[in-house]
Amino acid sequence: MLDKKKAVVLVSGGLDSATTLAIAKNEGFDIYAISFDYGQRHHFELEAARRVCESQGVSELVVFKVDTSIFRGSALTNDIPVPHNRDESQMADGIPVTYVPARNTIFLSVGLGLAESVGANDLFIGVNAVDYSGYPDCRPEFIKAFEDMANLATKAGVEGQRLNVHTPLILLTKAEIIQRGVALGVDYGLTHSCYDPLPDGTSCGECDSCQLRLRGFREAGFADPIRYNKS
Q: pLDDT tens, 91-122?
């Protein structure tokens, strides 16, 4: 029997990365999962990442710790209020304060190091350029530029073992992502998406991420299985 192809999958614990993980598994890859402890305001997403990996039969999850002092000026890592109850036009207006400087560039670079170390030529990330994310490091042109760089910067690339960066969700709506995940058996009750959860992990229901998630489930025709603050 031929060995399965290897892939590194970035798993945050959110809805998109859980779906991306399921897609990579469905495509027959042997999965190496990686998450990041980068000084985010809470660790609920890291706990969710472990649950998601366990539920999908991923035997190993690397949690890479990033020095928290490098990420400044973001509502996800600093004492800056997370915006609540913004409408679609506000979400679409500029880069949100929840943007973390160069986060995906750093995460993909670490994922690239793991990929080359384990002999994987495929790297999956659940970035999405639809639904008003506003993040510059979620755009197709960024992913292409990173992939080009990766093939110039690595021993594997120089020796002709091309590395491919997969972004299966990048042009899907949130509803389409959810429909794809449900079809693949993703348990979204294990995921965490909220930027500003309550101390017990309950999702606020009002931040951009919660609102986009809730709208996605409504449009997909499914009930969101996680808990939201009802107050």
A: 666 777 666 778 899 999 999 999 999 999 99
Query: 133: left (phi > 0), else alpha (psi -120 to 50), else beta?
Result: alpha
pLDDT tens across 118-147, in order?
999 999 999 998 765 678 888 999 999 999
The helix (run of H) or strand (run of E) holding residue 8 is strand 6-10
* Separation of alpha carbons 108 and 114, rounded Å: 10
What is the dihedral angle through the alpha carbons of 181, 184, 185, 191, rounded to the nearest 10 degrees?
-30
What's the pTM?
0.91
CB 111 within 8 A of CB 10: yes
CATH 3.30.1490.180 holds for 6-220: no
